[in-house]
From TrEMBL, chain A:
Domain Fe/B12 periplasmic-binding: 81-339
Top-level taxon: Bacteria
Cell location: Cell envelope
Identification of the protein by name: Fe(3+)-dicitrate ABC transporter substrate-binding protein FecB
Chain's gene name: fecB
TrEMBL record, chain B:
Main location class: membrane
Domain of life of the source: Bacteria
Database matches in SUPFAM superfamilies: ABC transporter involved in vitamin B12 uptake, BtuC
Protein name: Iron ABC transporter permease
PANTHER family assigned to the protein according to its UniProt record, in alphabetical order: FE(3+) DICITRATE TRANSPORT SYSTEM PERMEASE PROTEIN FECC-RELATED, FERRIC ENTEROBACTIN TRANSPORT SYSTEM PERMEASE PROTEIN
Alphabetical UniProt keywords: Cell membrane, Membrane, Transmembrane, Transmembrane helix, Transport
Residues in coiled coil: none
Taxonomic source organism: Kribbella turkmenica
Membrane spanning residue stretches: 27-48, 81-102, 114-132, 138-156, 168-189, 216-239, 260-287, 293-312, 324-344
Length: 339, 351
């Protein structure tokens, strides 16, 4: 009697472990960035390209309640000392003519792209983006902290004790989410008008760049990160392909996977048939170098057509923002059309 | 009097050991089943991928590959299948060796710090000296595996003659945790290669090329031949140290050679495929149940069984998120973790 009970308990324990493991494995895949809804006509006039989820009615109030990914935060006055825990938020600050007092720059200031660097000026590094240094942030006595809703979720409570903290998707954010986060950050900074002007300008820059591309552009472009142990493609809904789509260049990867990035083999790459490839390689030898020796590599349309371009991972991948998007779109147009 | 007390513990030890008797018929059937499994897996592995390719192209692809479809089979799918078999063989045999050497059924390369050592050194190379990565990683992995293995042995006190299995396991787990945390520190500090390194850390043969097989093969052959040649000594070791010594075995030398072979096999496998989890634990245990504990039979069968397990894990991983890649280590961990728990619980009851 007791023997069979032990057996049952053992079976249940093993089953529970398997199920937990399976669920955990599933979780990683399930979290997908949501695309913002199409901009509503009235709001579009108010802030171009921003989704209606952003609470623009808070603009200009002395105490503004900002909706963000980890809740709502009320900010009063005009924050002057701001800490940015992702390059995206440095972009947002520069877009409204401000500069951060502290940046989580991975201790590598050169990762701040040239388009932002001069305008950022002097700042204090607060360490790695993945693990910013709380003590350094505290010592800066900031008025506002802008954090990544994925990376910094665990330290959000700690950050909130230092200063009002707003958090948005940057690491896994798409182009729409990045634009929305720039506007929301501007609301928190009490710089609504500046950001609205900048967003209008951004829309115009992007439209002008799109106009440089032939209207019947039918080529697809794949954006990939090449590293020592992998070849990572970014599907249509990710940030960089989103930027390229605005100027009329589509991604060859199916967009139903809901992933921020996917791992590719040479076979999948050949089957994907990208007409253009933008490759952001890491330092040192990468898997691409090995693949380039294979005769199959030459079967990829982008290689056949000689439309494979190496691009800077700082500009194309790490600095997801409004200004960075213009840099990416500009470079893509130059590389593809020579204009 | 003195003869009595000396004989008593030895007899007990014999009783506690599983039976070394193997039925020849059983071994034949298991070997046949494994071979059928491997052949079926190879065909299955060659037939799936993002490109639809009919299997009738297979002979052409092996003889001469001109067309893209044949090239895909020849330069992408075939090395992937072959590497899965090689890596599985290396890790499973290393696991069986480790269990014999440590006299501990729960010993396995990933539990004894050997895999973690290889991983740490490879990640160190990728993140700190990116220009170093590539071909020399296999030697670096040996260094890491050896350093971790030797430290674990020293920590467990093997310099002073006898090693208690429990101390060896504890030292291994401690060293593993330390090395895994250090690896994580490296990854956090270097955002550059985080994605791809994390992928490799799970372990898999997704990006296999013939070059990987060329790197692995000499070490695999050396490791397997060495292991098979040791089978008899390992059988004697299984009788207990005293008995083995009594039968003229140099127990320390057997342990040292076995450990060196584990380092060669694991270092080579990890450097090309990452630390595919639980192969060294699961395969020897399943096969021990089927064919008994004689290492002359067990080690060759482990090399086939390990290959089959990694091959099928890789095939199932391709169905998770097609056409994109998921490392096979995810699947082996899903199979291995419950089996580990089961073994650990059984162990508590019998000991």
């Amino acid at each position: 009697m007791s023997h069979s009970a032990t057996k049952v308990r053992r079976a249940v324990a093993v089953l529970a472990l398997t199920v937990t493991a399976a669920v955990l494995a599933g979780c990683g895949a399930a979290s997908s960035p949501s695309t913002g809804a199409a901009p509503n006509a009235d709001r579009a006039a108010a802030a171009e390209g921003v989704s209606p989820d952003v609470n623009l009615d808070q603009c200009g109030k002395p105490a503004r309640t900002v909706k963000h990914d980890l809740g709502t935060t009320t900010i009063s006055g005009s924050p002057a000392k701001v800490v940015a825990l992702e390059y995206s938020f440095v972009d947002a600050l520069v877009a409204v003519g401000m500069s951060p007092v502290g940046v989580a720059d991975d201790g590598q200031p050169e990762r701040i792209i040239p388009a932002l660097r001069d305008k950022v000026g002097e700042y204090k590094s607060v360490g790695l983006r993945a693990t910013p240094n709380i003590q350094v942030i505290t010592a800066l006595k900031p008025d506002l902290i802008v954090a990544d809703s994925g990376r910094h979720k665990a330290i959000y409570a700690q950050l909130s004790k230092i200063a009002p903290t707003i958090a948005f998707a940057s690491l896994n954010g798409n182009y729409q989410q990045v634009l929305d986060s720039e506007m929301s950050t501007a609301i928190a900074l009490d710089k609504c008008d500046e950001m609205k002007t900048r967003l209008t300008e951004h829309a115009k820059v992007m439209a002008d760049l799109k106009a440089k591309a032939p209207a019947d552009e039918s080529r697809t472009a794949l954006f990939v990160r090449a590293s020592d142990k992998g070849f990572t493609g970014f599907p249509a809904k990710a940030y960089t392909p989103g930027v390229l789509e605005v100027i009329g260049i589509r991604s060859p990867l199916p967009d139903d996977s809901g992933e921020a990035s996917v791992s590719l083999t040479l076979e999948t790459l050949v089957a994907t048939k990208p007409d253009v490839m933008f490759i952001a390689p890491n330092e040192g030898p990468t898997l691409r170098d090995t693949w380039a020796k294979s005769p199959l590599w030459r079967e990829i349309p982008a290689v056949k057509n000689n439309t494979t371009f190496d691009v800077d991972p700082n500009e194309w991948s790490r600095s997801r923002g409004l200004i960075a998007a213009e840099v990416v779109a500009q470079e893509a147009v130059e590389l593809l059309y020579g204009k | 009097m003195s003869v009595d007390t000396a004989a008593q513990p030895a007899q007990e030890a014999v009783h506690q050991r599983p039976k070394i008797v193997t039925s020849k018929q059983r071994v034949t059937w298991v070997s046949l089943a494994l071979l059928v499994l491997v052949v079926a897996g190879v065909v299955w592995g060659l037939s799936i991928g993002s490109q639809q390719i009919s299997l009738s192209r297979l002979p052409g692809a092996i003889v001469r590959a001109d067309e893209p479809d044949e090239l895909i089979i020849q330069s992408i799918r075939l090395p992937r299948v072959v590497l899965a078999l090689c890596v599985g063989a290396a890790l499973a045999v290393a696991g069986a060796l480790m269990q014999a050497v440590a006299a501990n059924p729960l010993a396995a390369p990933e539990i004894m710090g050997v895999n973690a050592g290889a991983v740490f050194v490879v990640v160190l190379a990728i993140t700190v000296v990116p220009s170093l990565s590539g071909a020399p990683t296999i030697l670096l992995a040996f260094g890491g595996a050896a350093a971790a293995g030797v430290s674990v042995m020293l920590l467990a006190g093997s310099g002073r003659g006898r090693v208690s299995p429990v101390r060896l396991a504890l030292a291994g787990v401690t060293a593993s945790s330390l090395l895994i945390s250090l690896t994580q520190v490296l990854i956090i500090f270097d955002e550059n290669s985080t994605d791809s390194v994390l992928f490799w850390l799970v372990g898999g043969v997704n990006f296999a090329g013939w070059q990987d097989i060329r790197n692995l093969l000499p070490w695999l052959v050396l490791g397997l031949i060495g292991a098979f040649a040791m089978a008899r000594s390992l059988n004697l070791l299984a009788l207990g140290d005293d008995m083995a010594r009594g039968l003229g075995q140099n127990v320390e030398r057997t342990r040292m050679t076995g450990s060196a072979l584990v380092i060669v096999l694991c270092g080579a496998a990890v450097s090309v495929a990452g630390p595919v989890a639980f192969i060294g634990l699961v395969v020897p245990h399943i096969l021990r149940r089927l064919v008994g504990s004689s290492y002359t039979v067990l080690l060759p069968l482990c090399s086939i069984g390990g290959g089959a397990l990694v091959l099928y894990a890789d095939i199932s991983s391709r169905y998770v998120k097609p056409p994109f890649e998921v490392p096979a280590g995810v699947v082996t961990a899903l199979i291995g973790a419950p089996i580990f728990v089961y073994l650990a619980r059984r162990q508590k009851v019998t000991s």
